[in-house]
Amino acid sequence: MDDTIGPQIDKNGDGHIDLKELREALEACGFKIAGYQSRVIEEEFKNSNKTKINGKLTYDEFEKLISSNEGTTHSVRVEEQLAFSDWINSNLQHDPDLKKLLPIDSEGKNLYERVKDGILLCKVINHSCPDTIDERAINKEKLTLYTKLENLTLALSSASAIGCNVINIDAHNLSKGTPHLVLGLLWQIIRIGLFNQITLEHCPGLTTLLSEDEKIDDLMKLSPEAILLRWVNYHLERAGTHRRVNNFQSDIVDSEVYTHLIKQIAPTDADVNVEALYEKDLQNRAEIMLQQAAKLKCRAFVTPQDVVNGVYKLNLAFVANLFNNHPGLEQTNGAIDGYETIEETREERTYRNWINSMGVSPHVNWLYSDLADGLVVFQLYDIIKPGTVKWNRVHRKFTNERKKFMEKLENCNYAVELGKEIKFSLVGIGGQDINEGNVTLTLALIWQLMRAYTLSILTQLAESGSPIVEKEIVQWVNNKLNAAGKKSSIRNFQDSSISDAKVVIDLIDAIKPGAINYDLVKQGSTEEEKLANAKYAISMSRKAGARVYALPEDITEVKPKLVMTVFACLMALDYIPNMDSAQQ
Predict the structure, then answer these.
(1) Where does the EF-hand domain start and stop, copy by copy (predicted)?
(2) Does residue 343 surpass a pLDDT of 90?
(3) How far apart are CA 470 and CA 565, in angstroms?
């Protein structure tokens, strides 16, 4: 059982999962199910005496349930299999590199076979987050088992870099087409792509959803799900209906909300109607509603059955897709206070993606508000140095609105205290700064967490077991390059020669001789050529198995902090070839 998920589902730490907490446990592992479905499983276990301890599941029993080809989890997987296959066919069918792989059959049964060479997964990642993977790094011709595994490693490392939790998944798992791993990874990638557009940067009209006494900061604190709920209710109000939604499960099963929403956001020439409301059979009503969605080219992710059953993931994706294509929001007239500060910087996005890839809960959507209670920071401490956090000092649940502020502040004070204990430089940083989301000071703490994590991996892998410091990384880089007969070298992580990325490319080739196709490497005399080299260097690092979070621009601009992490990840890769297992 994944160490980061364990504490979420085993509340009292006794090594078992209470049946009454089964739904929450399944959700922590990526299976969002309706309440009635969890009750069915609970009753099944009780009545069949499947549990060794009355009312509790062991981790082994729970893992068997997840992997089971029976019952509710299987039915959920079939629904996702169908939805994701349809989405892939619709969005990637014209890609010339996928002619042999697409379309996937109408029931999605050969989805698991089609992901085995890694090409499809790489393409899905680039669709959700364009330019994440340099196409030159993908093996496309005359594939062997080894080159397929390289593609899968590239996909996994890149998925991690965009914020997917790929802990306990490696290229070999995916090469077997293990259903729950394939679907879990695809859902994360697709969700990131859908949610990327639910921002003020992509849709300034989101300010329309603010109430009179709210500021932009209040909107930024909402999760994408919460923003979508608010968006749906905004359009329901404009449509003149009394209906409102609090969730994308039970509240949408009768298709009424969807029917009003689609009519409201549809262009006037789309010929959308509300005839679904006159159909009494819910299944037939859902079909008629989806026919209207098809007029907006938004019949994606859900079948009528998924609507009637209130399948959470797929209905969430359906609504997000509607929003992205037809937001129906006009930008508020006049200047909005705080608008200029809301766009996420590259550095913030990199740190947020790194945090999410560590498997923390809840998912971090906005760096500052989502760290304000300290709980994610504690999880990161425990990942970097297990046992650091004394969890009995942590407020995991907050009692009430009156005490919540002080409890969160106490958490943040303890988080800073822990940082000082492990020798972080936190002069002038207090718990209040984290609690209030002070940008500069919060970023200072997160950078030190990321640095500590990166160096801790090196320390674990070093034969001496002694802590690794930055100057040792520089020394290793130059020794490795020299031993391979390369002419490049670096003085430090601020060295301007790093900007053309050739030193990174040479280092990859030194670690894995022959990995680099030097015909693809540019001279690096212009900014455009430097960026092309940096993109190739980042993707080739990930293809080799290094979990690199830095972006190509970090190399061309020689951002020393993130440049250090690139070299450190490559050093760790050299210490142990199978980087996947090292970073699990």
Answers:
(1) 8-32
(2) no
(3) 10
Mean pLDDT of 392-413: 89
Please give the Cα distance from 72 to 220 (Å, whole number).
35
- Percent share of the chain, pLDDT over 90: 72
pLDDT over 50 (residue 128): yes
Strand, coil or helix: what is 211?
Answer: coil
What is the C-alpha radius of gyration for the chain, rounded to an integer number of angstroms?
25
Please state, in angstroms and rounded to a whole number, the distance separating the CA atoms of residues 91 and 367.
30
CB 521 within 8 A of CB 503: no
pTM of this prediction?
0.85
Neighbours of 213 (CB within 10 A): 6
Chain-centre distance for alpha carbon 161 = 9
d(CA 509, CA 419): 37
Question: How far is it, in rounded angstroms, from Cα 360 to Cα 182?
Answer: 20
Bridge partners (DSSP) of residue 57 are: 17
- 270-322 pLDDT per residue, tens: 999 999 999 999 999 999 999 999 999 999 999 999 999 999 999 999 999 99
* 67 to 29, 63, 285: CA distances (angstroms): 11, 6, 34
> Is the separation of the CB atoms in 357 and 161 below 8 Å?
yes
State the alpha helices, DSSP H only, in 466-526.
Answer: 470-483, 502-511
Burial degree of 558 (CB within 10 A; 0-12, 13-18, 19+): middle
Question: 81 and 108 in contact (C-beta within 8 Å)?
Answer: yes
Span 145-171, average pLDDT: 95
Question: What span, in angstroms and rounded, lies between the C-alpha atoms of 341 and 217?
Answer: 9
CB under 8 Å to 378, separation ≥6 — which residues?
A: 389, 391, 394, 411, 415, 418
Higher pLDDT, 343 or 432: 432
State how far the Cα of 469 lies from the Cα of 212, in Å rounded to an integer: 51
CB atoms within 10 A of CB 400: 7
User: Is 80 exceeded by the pLDDT of residue 29?
Assistant: no
Q: In this structure, is the dihedral angle defined by the CA atoms of residues 109, 113, 114 and 115, taken in order, positive or negative?
A: positive
- Side chain identity at residue 489, one-letter code: S
Separation of alpha carbons 106 and 86, rounded Å:
7
Residue 93: Cβ within 10 Å count: 12
What pLDDT is recorded for position 72? 44
Report the alpha-carbon distance of residue 410 to residue 372 in Å, rounded: 11
Residue closest to 489 by CA, chosen among 468, 479, 540: 479
Task: Tell me the sheet residues that pair with 17.
Answer: 57
What is the spatial distance between Cα 8 and Cα 37, in angstroms, rounded to a whole number? 20
